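Structure first, sequence second, as always.
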């Protein structure tokens, strides 16, 4: 379940001042996007301390060795999580069956096949994509040309940067980016 305790915080190792930022939080792990294509799925048990940043109780080379995964793997989710409307738990399979066309959590690629990130929120007219180097892109839905395992947008990689926004900017439709960590791992609750 996404509690938001670590979401969007910087992550440090015992010997490295910047590993990346938390882009997803489940009940037992954090997903950290680092530089380039780096991604680390780190169990919460490895967290030593959290304040403005999250300190992992390992040197950087151990984090890489133990927790590095492909950035293109689907982001982890909890099997059960609470909805924004109720306290009761909802089976993820039931939710996915009810909302099969959701873009949430899908990888995003340009038409020249460059991976740019994952959909973190789906608004009425845009998708919010968290990508490499702590980048965020707010991409109009009318730029989507195909949806399958990934969302394909009809621009080349060099042109995607016109949709780059500050990672901490307000979300499309209003609301703070911090709210992405306050709601369950489901789309469309934000707008």
């Amino acid at each position: 379940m996404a509690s938001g305790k670590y979401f969007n915080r910087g992550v440090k190792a015992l010997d490295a001042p910047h590993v990346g930022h938390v882009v997803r939080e489940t009940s037992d792990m954090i997903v950290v996007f680092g530089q380039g294509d780096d991604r680390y799925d780190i169990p919460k048990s490895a967290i030593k301390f959290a304040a403005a940043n999250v300190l992992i109780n390992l040197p950087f080379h151990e984090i890489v060795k133990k927790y590095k995964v492909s950035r293109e793997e689907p982001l982890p989710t909890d099997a059960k999580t609470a909805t924004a409307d109720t306290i009761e738990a909802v089976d993820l399979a039931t939710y996915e069956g009810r909302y099969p066309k959701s873009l949430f959590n899908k990888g995003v690629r340009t038409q020249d096949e460059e991976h740019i990130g994952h959909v973190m929120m789906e608004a009425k007219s845009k998708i919010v994509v968290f990508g490499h180097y702590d980048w965020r892109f707010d991409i109009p839905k009318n730029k989507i040309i195909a949806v399958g395992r990934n969302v394909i947008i009809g621009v080349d990689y060099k042109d995607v940067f016109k949709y780059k926004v500050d990672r901490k900017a307000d979300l499309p439709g209003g609301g703070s980016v911090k709210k992405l960590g306050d709601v369950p791992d489901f789309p469309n609750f934000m707008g």
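Margin note: The CA atoms of residues 9 and 21 lie 5 Å apart.
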